[in-house]
Amino acid sequence: MSGAPEPTPEHDDSTDAEVVLSVRDLEVSFGTKRGRAEVVRGLDYDLHRGETLAIVGESGSGKSVSTLALTKLIPIPPGRGTGTAHLGDTDLISLSEAELVHVRGQRIGFVFQDPMTSLNPVHTIGRQLTEGMRHHLGLSEAAARDRAVELLAKVGIPSPEDRLGDYPHQFSGGMRQRVVIAIGLSCDPEVLIADEATTALDVTTQAQIIDLIAELQADLGMAVVWITHDLGVVAGIADRVLVMYAGEVVEQADAPELLSRPRHPYTVGLLASLPVLGDTERGDLAAIPGLPPPPTSLPPGCGFYPRCSFRSDERCATERPPLREVVAGHLVRSFYEVPEEQSRRASAATRIAIEPPDVRDEGVA
Amino acid sequence: MGRYVLRRTAQAAVALLGVSIVVFALIHLVPGDPVRPALGTRFDQELYETLIARAGLDQPLLLQYWNWLTSALTGDLGVSFRTGQPVTGALLQRLPATMLLAFAALLVGLLIALPAGIVSAVRQGRPVDYAASSFSQIGVSVPDFWFGLLLILVFARSLGWLPPSGYVSPLEDPVEAIRRLILPATTAGVVTGAILTRFVRSSVLEAMGAEHVRLARAKGMPERYILRHHVLRNAWIPVVTITGLQLATLLGGIVVVEVVFAWPGIGRLALDAVVRRDYPVLQGAVLLIATGFLLINLLVDLLYARLDPRITTS
Lengths: 365, 314
Hints:
CATH class of the largest domain in chain B: Mainly Alpha
Radius of gyration of chain B: 24 Å
Largest sheet of chain A: 8 strands, mixed
Strand order of the largest sheet of chain A: 6-7-8-3-9-10-12-11
Mean pLDDT of chain A: 83
Distance between the termini of chain A: 48 Å
Number of strands of chain B: 0
CATH topology of the largest domain in chain B: MetI-like fold
Oligomer: heterodimer
Distance between the termini of chain B: 13 Å
CATH architecture of the largest domain in chain B: Orthogonal Bundle
Number of strands of chain A: 12
Structural class of chain A: alpha/beta
Order of helices and strands of chain B: HHHHHHHHHHHHHH
Shape of chain A: globular
Mean pLDDT of chain B: 87
CATH superfamily of the largest domain in chain B: MetI-like
């Protein structure tokens, strides 16, 4: 860790609800043949009841690992998580495997990326939906069944009673993801973690799933963490956004603020690289040159320094920038900010790209 | 399901026909005949031709095949050139011994492979995994005749716990039958177990890596539950296939073990038939083994349909 004090993120006034998940100084590292891989480097955030937090980043940015590590779902044994993550009064990081079994699925629900593989092909939907409820809530078979029917109806599966005995291959991708969401919700979790939950789906289905989760959230009041690399998803549903790069948060703000006035060079690059339908003026699609640094050999200064086209401070190369609060509720890990003009230009393109009028409404079934 | 079985049975019949043609052709393409060696040094051209004619070997090959096929369809596989006894009877007489040994060997193999394979997959990279892998490696490398002899030396000669060889029908004397069965079944079973261990391990490993297993874990299901209901349940599908193939191999091919333990099975019968050019016996034995193979494969496929809902419902 750098010596710079890390400001504790303050939740802004618009979300005055109770904090359900409070993550402080979360670090995750793995022992690899090439040395210790620091995959998550000091993550802090608060998640409020009913709030949607989007964690955005490219592959390898640590966004998935940071949430999987909360309940030790990272399969690789030498993975090590430190810091604290309070779910209510419970610090998840200090829990044993036996204790975590009662958090997973019960207090934190998960929806994974690919519904084609995240359901077991040899068990019925009903069985996969009820096993968690029977285990966590101690429901009888009949009671679990009733609740399963209710849940399937809630996630928009037609004639749910008839579908309980069906196998996953009898459902389409979008329908399977609805089933996975129903599984995630089955024990009334306080937090639902959607890990790239729409990435494997086609665009119309994506919009449906996003709207479904937003509806369910409004209905059930749970907090949602969306892990995504898709800023369209962010614009659609996120209340707040964490942008992660090389294992750390580079920018954190309310979604409208972040999308309209991104201040970190990486965020600006991400927004500028969105394709815009019908945009002929920009020419080639903007891309951020280079690749993220390998987690085993991170640069000494800013993680984004080697790829940054805005770098202007000599400390960038040698000193890890602190996470600064530049405007209330808007944190940026940088010694400087991207000039307003470039920031606005990237954001203007984004608005067209991610909010084409009317498309979203049509997408809802 | 009924139609599926019917279709598979028809396919099996066609395959059997093909097998019979190939075997028939192979036997007759090999130079030489059964009569000449039987006559030995007292070779006499006239006698030779008489015997050839009596065996029907002077007829055109196609006609020979046709005659064989039509009587085979009625269950008559001809008579042995050597003993003059009906082949069908000889095969049926030997079948129980072979089946007993094959199933016992498979049981030994599974008793080794299931625990060893599962444990080594679950404890991947730990000492127990290396131990299981070493066993598997040694098991497939050791020649079965040598291993059989070793067992005889240790358990029959030195310790005197078990009889060294021979077969007793379990209907006559169940206890003695089992005592005689232990050594040959272990010999064949260890090899089978070694092969199966690898398959069990790799299919359990593959099943453990599935995304739905991760979701089951994320659902908060206990590890034991996940292993039983999500990992093993899915791992069985490939294991069943290879187990079926192993059983079929055991039914047809434990010639070496049968010879070492003086076990009166089909394998030894077939071996003798090859050596003595006893065409009808060889043809019949191969047909029986092929039938067994196809039957087991049919059973495996039916079992598949039970294990994997995608096969019957899609």
